[in-house]
Amino acid sequence: KEYTGFVDESRTKAGKVTGPVKVAKSLTLNATLGVNLNRQNMFTIINNQIHNGRFPEDDKGIYFVLTSKEVAYGDSDVVFCEVSDRGMCGYHFSFLASDGKKRLKYSFVGDPDHCPANCIRAQIDPSLIPRIVKTPHGDSLDSMISVISHELFETVTDPLGTIYDAWVDSDE
Questions:
Q1: So where are the chain's domains?
Q2: Distance CA 143, CA 169 (A)
Q3: The dihedral formed by the CA atoms of 21, 24, 28 and 29, expressed in degrees to the nearest 10
Q4: Per-residue pLDDT of the chain in tens (172 residues, 90 and over written 9)
């Protein structure tokens, strides 16, 4: 409750964050762009679904791209499953909408089974790392849900994926 309460009272340069989160629609797609994705592919995947009428162009929403364990992701600044400063299990960013003004927010969340020692692990006790810890339901979806939640709240408090529009306390 405190976690969502914090977000309910957050303000960004775009204004106050309000309302419940709703899943508007989901799709299952084939790997038409292959299994080695990058940031440009995220733009292409989302835009193709918008232009084909499967999703609306919604600058108030967040598009999530969730992948299967075969899919890798790499860019100059972030790499899925890499153990480094660039390594991540998910990230969020934005790109310009078709009007050239609004920005569409999205998040990539990879399947932790691609690298279980990196994205399915105990985060609290460093002595357990890199031992693979069994998740509550015994599958990678448990860990994906954790990353989805993390990226959702990061997107709400830092909509464009930059530090320049992130949530700030107006009293400071």
A1: 36-165
A2: 30
A3: -100
A4: 334 444 555 555 555 666 677 888 888 888 889 999 999 999 999 999 999 999 999 998 999 999 999 998 888 777 888 777 777 888 899 999 999 999 999 999 998 888 877 776 544 445 655 555 566 776 778 888 888 988 888 888 887 776 555 555 555 4
